[in-house]
């Protein structure tokens, strides 16, 4: 029976893949059941409705892409290496290409908005903490965190929408490796201007 073959995680991961490909509207019970070779009955064994699946998928994304990553980074003692590891992980481990830009594009959706706001807050707070650990004052650390996060989101959007025009943002190849190393170097070594208040 389908209920013995598929787990809630199977459905949530399929939902995230659909979300990455076509946005919230692509998270369809019928389409996912067909994709997974399952029945609607299998879906309803695990979830009350599509909204419950979407909520579970977004929660899974938030946990794997933010909470788990932050916990792993806290195991790295050196602040510079911690930032390098964070950016390397965030920019290269992408099981659902286009997922984050798709989620951001639906920031006004009632299911997406609260999860996205929580994730954004947690990420910016953690980045600010990391830049403070490099010796920046609170205000410059926050500015650098916002700059780094904007660069991260922009990089992912280019990978989703224009990798043919900007091959440097791809996931493989010497050109992509060099561009990624350059980006990470820029983000790990912020150089505030002499006019900036170090506090």
Task: Briefly characterize the structure.
The chain is mainly alpha-helical and 199 residues long.
Describe the protein in words.
It is a single chain. The protein has 199 residues and is mainly α. The protein has helices at residues 2-5, 8-22, 29-36, 40-46, 50-73, 79-92, 99-105, 112-133, 138-161, 174-188. It has a single domain (2-188), classed as Tetracycline Repressor, domain 2, CATH 1.10.357. The mean pLDDT is 91.
Roughly what percent helix? over 70%
Please indicate the count of domains: 1
Q: Could you tell me the CATH topology label.
A: Tetracycline Repressor, domain 2
The main sheet comes to: none
Number of helices: 10
CATH level-two architecture: Orthogonal Bundle
Cα end-to-end separation: 62 Å
Oligomer status: single chain
Tell me, rounded to a whole number, the average pLDDT.
91
Low-confidence stretches: none
Task: Note the main attributes of this structure.
199 residues, 0% strand, mainly alpha, Tetracycline Repressor, domain 2, 10 helices
Helix and strand arrangement:
Elements (H helix, E strand, L loop, with lengths): L1 H4 L2 H15 L6 H8 L3 H7 L3 H24 L5 H14 L6 H7 L6 H22 L4 H24 L12 H15 L11
Helix pairs in contact: 2-5, 2-7, 5-6, 5-8, 6-10, 8-9
